[in-house]
Amino acid sequence: MSKPLSIGVAGLGTVGAGVLKLLAENGDIVAARAGRPVTVGAVSARTKGRDRGVALDGLRWHDDPVALAADPGVDVVVELIGGSDGPARALVEAALAAGKPVVTANKALLAVHGAAIAEMAEARGVPLAFEAAVAGGIPAIKGLREGLAANRLKRVAGILNGTCNYILTTMREQGREFGDVLEEAQALGYAEADPSFDIDGVDAAHKLAILAALAFGRPVDFGAVHVEGIREVTAMDIAFAGELGYRIKLLGIAGRDEAGISARVHPCMVPVAAPIARVDGVFNAVVAEGDFVGRVMLEGRGAGAGPTASAVVADLIDIARGRHTPVWGGALDAAPAVAMERHRGAYYLRLMVLDRPGVIADVTGILRDQAISLESMLQRGRAPGEAVPVVLTTHDCEEAAMRAALDRIAGLDAVLEKPALIRIEAL
Ligand SMILES: NC(=O)c1ccc[n+]([C@@H]2O[C@H](COP(=O)([O-])OP(=O)(O)OC[C@H]3O[C@@H](n4cnc5c(N)ncnc54)[C@H](OP(=O)(O)O)[C@@H]3O)[C@@H](O)[C@H]2O)c1
Fold it and tell me: Domain containing 397: what range?
């Protein structure tokens, strides 16, 4: 067997320790598939003495992770620190500058600086691999860039954040409100103490920006992603969605059409019968639509030590074998980004209105003025003089028209709360 591939691992937290554990337990099959052993030569983390549940004896320790790039005994740098800047970025740039292949799980870094980092890697012909950065253990990047390489992709979408999917699933199954379920998820360790990155859709948007770049062959453009989270989803809307034959999921959706490339993350109503509607709990899914293959869906665990380590080590096996795919999969697409105002689709609208004559006529009049046609309307209960929910679903219309209508509807005297708006997606 040829010379071992020696790796330097920066970050020994959930993922870093997971990688060391996987290499210790599955070293034999990794070596067989890589054509040579993959060994850990050096490591770096913040706190040297911490017990990480994995043996670090005999490994070189660097207090400064950037030193891994210059360590002559390190062939490949594995960046598992996290964060879009700071030591993670410094290490990745130093490694590429030194001509060392990089494996990273860092979606924040790639979403924000991916275009420049990829350019650096391509210019030097150095592998930059990041399977673990999108949807954890799901081989989404390999699937898109290699398995579907023969297709023009029209759309790539997915459930890209396990925390949000867990919260929405629990709200639906137990009829509970968002804040209550979030608190429980934090207590169980499914949500961070500061959950905003997850629940405001930023983490999903990081991953979508990477997927869109791969699917449509263009540099990562995180700024072009429209982002909404799940804070405003209520138990009432989840129940109405069920009555209408939908489930509410936080989806990332990137599409390519004549107008250009659109990328958006927001809560969506998807038909109960759609495969993605049944992806529940902490599971993630990635759906791709190609012109020859049709629709493909991959489902699996999007986070956790085991699934993420599985993706990191798959990248290491490719590098050990000398398999090197260009970062964005070939020629770049110069199509413009399409603004969210230009989005066309169907909408669910839920209003809390005073139960009195004429209110529905006012609402439907405003929708008519914006050329928005209704698909269905549902009003529950009679409570003269009190607030009742009214649910409307529309046929396809333009986002800008819907927003203009919503502003006027929210201003009606009889509309008592901020209207709830959820986009309906056929997937
Ligand atoms: N966790 C997941 O399920 C998952 C899934 C997909 C992708 N990712 C990505 O994987 C990366 C790592 O995530 P994680 O969950 O493993 O994070 P984590 O548990 O917080 O671990 C981070 C590690 O980085 C080390 N570190 C932090 N600052 C450092 C510095 N200045 N110098 C050296 N080491 C430093 C920490 O050292 P100490 O241990 O000494 O504090 C720790 O070992 C992130 O980019 C994350 O987005 C994670």
Answer: 343-424
